């Protein structure tokens, strides 16, 4: 079972983790998801979790003390600490596949200008710490990124998908799709508003279907993400 812990100042933001595919995986005992309020670890009158940055500049920085209190309660020698941040390494399908084999992941959801850098520096001496970016843009906080990362990881955990072959043709999947985007998909009816399903898909010729799908993947990648082909 993959155990996930999320530390945040907005616990309600993570409620979608209990829905749909993830909710069923939790019910089936394939995943464990716990959300923790960082303010519970701030012991002053106002439960303060941020302060002005050293060196000046706009915004606030999340204080190390509440994070240390929260993470000390969660971290074991099997833990991977993931910190969503636009300054992290890109989150990819291959990284999702790797993380899906972990035993315990703790997510630290930053807000404001981010988490005091000493938090990551300290825990790197004890466990694996990975700062991850889900794209070249900036969000208000790490919660949305955690929803993205958890869904990408969880669907790769054995048993979460009803059919383990379901992700074999995914964009970026290992093998033939490593650097390709998945092509178009179709279902019934065979004709909709004068648009027909490509005949090859109804031919029953699995070799031709496979070749067509690969060709379509190359075409879509060329159009939308030519950088992947380079």
Structure overview:
This protein has 230 residues and is α/β, with parallel strands linked by helices. 29% of the residues lie in helices and 20% in strands. The protein contains 7 helices and 9 strands, in the order βαβββαβαβαβαββαα. The strands form 3 sheets. It has a 5-stranded parallel beta sheet, sandwiched between helices. The chain is elongated.
Topology:
Blueprint lengths: L1 E7 L11 H8 L3 E7 L12 E2 L9 E2 L1 H9 L6 E12 L2 H7 L4 E5 L8 H7 L4 E6 L9 H12 L36 E2 L2 E2 L9 H19 L1 H4 L1
Parallel strand pairs: 1-2, 1-6, 5-6, 5-7
Antiparallel strand pairs: 3-4, 8-9
Give the overall pLDDT as a whole number.
Answer: 94
Low-confidence stretches: none
Oligomeric state of the chains present here: single chain
The strand line-up of the biggest sheet is: 2-1-6-5-7
Largest sheet: 5 strands, parallel
